[in-house]
Design a protein that fits this description.
- The protein is an alpha/beta fold and 235 residues long.
- The chain has a single domain, classed as Class I glutamine amidotransferase (GATase) domain (Rossmann fold), CATH 3.40.50.880.
- It is 29% helix and 24% strand.
- The chain has a nine-stranded mixed beta sheet with strand order 2-1-3-4-11-10-9-6-7, sandwiched between helices. Strands 5-8 form a two-stranded antiparallel sheet.
- Helix 3 packs across helix 4.
- The longest helix has 15 residues.
- The radius of gyration is 16 Å and the shape is globular.
Length: 235
């Protein structure tokens, strides 16, 4: 069985890695699959494997911004364009979702509403019931979110399957085997709470932070996307 490559585009806050691990660890844990079924690479410290040796790509989140650009972003974008062109399945998460949109011709900018943070509600379009990946999710579900940027313009042929009033592009299919989610299916309750605490400087008051913390509950539904993606490409 060919492994899934996790394209690691960044790392979490150094203060929480000792307790929770890093983005790739969270993704693997949320899939429920054996760690040996994954290979982690960034194309810099660790070269990309050739496509013939992997079954799919999952793109992590990042604390960087897609709109910052630079050689690293272009390297990753070209990798994703090539993967989509060869029909290699791809799933982008948060930054990875935005990066995939950018790679395929979309536009990513700062969200006009600022930060979306904490537990949010997402509603899927009726068409999601017949979509291979998103059909595992309820029509309305809760998920974890933490992002400042968003897809402003979708690339050609992209289809939106879910969103909310703040963020209309939470669940998108970019190509027959390429998907992106703005929410974080790899987060758990404690990781989400830690992100809220680390984002305190962006919040107006401690009361605002505490209100977000109190809303965070253990969620099962959002992680289903990662589990379903693995089922589609590994089994």
């Amino acid at each position: 069985m060919k492994p899934i490559m996790i394209l690691k585009t960044g790392s979490t806050f150094s203060g929480i890695t000792h307790e929770f691990g890093d983005f790739d660890d969270w993704i693997i844990a949320a899939t429920g699959e054996a760690p040996g079924l994954f290979v982690v690479a960034d194309g810099l410290a660790k070269p990309f494997p050739v496509f013939e040796r992997i079954s799919a790509i999952i793109v992590t989140g990042s604390h960087s911004m897609v709109s910052d650009g630079g050689p690293q972003v272009e390297l990753w974008a070209q990798l994703l364009r090539n993967a989509v062109g060869q029909s290699l399945p791809v799933l982008g998460i948060c930054y990875g979702h935005q990066l995939l949109a950018y790679a395929l011709g979309g536009v990513v900018t700062d969200h006009a509403g600022g930060l979306e943070l904490g537990q949010v509600e997402i509603e899927l379009a009726a068409a999601a019931q017949d979509e291979p990946l998103f059909s595992v999710l309820p029509q309305k579900f809760s998920a974890y979110a933490s992002h400042l940027q968003s897809i402003q313009f979708l690339p050609p042929a992209a289809f939106v399957y879910g969103g909310n009033r703040f963020e209309t592009h939470h669940a998108v299919r970019f190509a027959p085997a390429a998907w992106g989610v703005q929410f974080h299916p790899e987060f758990n309750q404690r990781i989400m709470q830690a992100y809220i605490e680390y984002q305190r400087p962006r919040l107006k008051t401690d009361a605002a932070m505490n209100a977000l913390l109190e809303k965070v509950e253990p969620l099962a539904d959002s992680g289903l996307v990662l589990q379903r993606f693995c089922q589609l490409v590994l089994h």
